């Protein structure tokens, strides 16, 4: 059974000093690099927003980062501008061993819809194409690591479990944003979806 490592959003903007820094985001890089050798496939995801993306608080009058707004697809947290296509913040952390990656899935490029999950945009309908690629390659087991535990790792892991993959999240190699209890809620949600939390 082919087992893939999915490395979620290990990008400068999610590391200390970045626009949407996750505490300790950079600490997981050496451990992720070391883990890559144990997998038959390594896939990286990259948050990749056009300038003025609708998930940015700067695009919503009177809204501050980390407040929410209602979008046609549901409630959306509004973020500081981050991971703008081609910017230094959108680049992978310089220490991440990207040479080992078979594929890089970019997401969040649709101006009107955010995309936390590596599989579907936040409308839970528009696919990124990752599922088709994994199926064609006969990959049925996934281990996920990266940033942030409670957003992109969580949404990716739950979608993968719903799609029928055997999914493990390696918590030691993830770090969380943790907004209003979002970390605890995400751990509950992942466990309920059948994700193994290692
Ligand atoms: C993420 C918020 C906004 C993540 C991406 O990678 O978890 N979080 N965009
Ligand atoms: Zn984003």
UniProtKB/TrEMBL annotation:
Pfam families with a match to the protein in the record: Isochorismatase (PF00857)
Lineage: superkingdom: Bacteria
Pathway assigned to this chain's UniProt record: Cofactor biosynthesis; nicotinate biosynthesis; nicotinate from nicotinamide: step 1/1
Organism listed in the record: Roseovarius bejariae
Gene that encodes it: pncA
Name of this chain's protein: Nicotinamidase
Listed Gene3D superfamilies: Isochorismatase-like
Coiled-coil features, chain-numbered ranges: none
EC number assigned by the record: 3.5.1.19
Example of a GO biological process term: pyridine nucleotide biosynthetic process
GO terms of molecular function: metal ion binding; nicotinamidase activity
Span of domain Isochorismatase-like: 4-197
């Amino acid at each position: 059974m082919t087992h893939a490592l999915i490395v979620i959003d290990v990008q400068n903007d999610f590391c200390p000093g970045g626009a949407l820094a996750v505490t300790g985001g950079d600490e997981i890089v050496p451990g992720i690099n070391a883990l890559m050798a144990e997998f038959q496939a390594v896939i990286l995801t990259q948050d990749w927003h056009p300038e003025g993306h609708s998930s940015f608080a700067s695009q919503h009058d009177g809204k501050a980062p980390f407040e929410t707004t209602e979008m046609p697809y549901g409630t959306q947290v509004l973020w500081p501008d981050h991971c703008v296509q081609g910017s230094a913040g959108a680049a992978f952390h310089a220490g991440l061993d990207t040479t080992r990656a078979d594929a890089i899935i970019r997401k969040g490029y649709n101006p009107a819809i955010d995309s936390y999950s590596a599989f579907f945009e936040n409308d839970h309908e528009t696919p990124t194409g990752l599922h088709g690629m994994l199926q064609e390659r006969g990959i049925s087991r996934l281990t996920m690591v990266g940033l942030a535990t409670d957003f992109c790792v969580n949404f990716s892991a739950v979608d993968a479990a719903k799609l029928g993959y055997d999914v493990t999240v390696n918590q030691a190699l993830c770090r969380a944003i943790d907004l209003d209890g979002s970390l605890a809620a995400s751990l509950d949600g992942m466990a309920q979806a059948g994700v193994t939390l290692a």
